[in-house]
Amino acid sequence: MPGLTKSHPTKSIEIRFIGPPEKREQAVECLRPLGFIDTSEEYVSWRELFPEYSDEEMPGSCLRGARFKEGITQQRLADMIGIPQRHISMMENGKRPIGKEMAKRFGKALNIGYKVFL
């Protein structure tokens, strides 16, 4: 019987924690001797990367991106969730707000967490 010939593709892992902010540095220091490094300084806020987008424009851009990711037209999405296609167009262009209930419907239809649309 042949043995396994491939090694596991993961050479490193990333660990994320949720906890009290005042204990952050203590947690990082406990992990350093084990070979872990703190990469939190390497992350950049999306606001720094995309200064051209305002908070009002972001939900519509997320909707458009999620729709493209799934390969769905505005009309198909409208049919899926039962609203007129023009409403989706208005939401994507920032002319109509996306409420919490609508965001949940979009999230379910587009296989994504609804909070990105709020």
How does the SSE layout of this entry go?
Layout: H1 24-31, H2 46-49, H3 58-70, H4 74-81, H5 85-92, H6 100-110
Q: Which features would summarize this protein structure in a list?
A:
118 residues, mainly alpha, 6 helices, elongated
Q: What is the CATH homology-level superfamily of the domain at 58-117? A: lambda repressor-like DNA-binding domains
Label the CATH architecture of the domain at 58-117: Orthogonal Bundle
Profile the largest sheet. none
**Estimated structural class:** mainly alpha
Characterize the overall form. elongated
The N- to C-terminal Cα distance equals 55 Å
The parts where pLDDT drops under 50 for at least 5 residues are none
Helical stretch count? 6
CATH fold call of the domain at 58-117: 434 Repressor (Amino-terminal Domain)
What is the name of the CATH class of the domain at 58-117? Mainly Alpha
Give, in order, the helices and strands.
Answer: HHHHHH
Helix content: 40-55%
Number of strands: 0
Strand content: under 5%
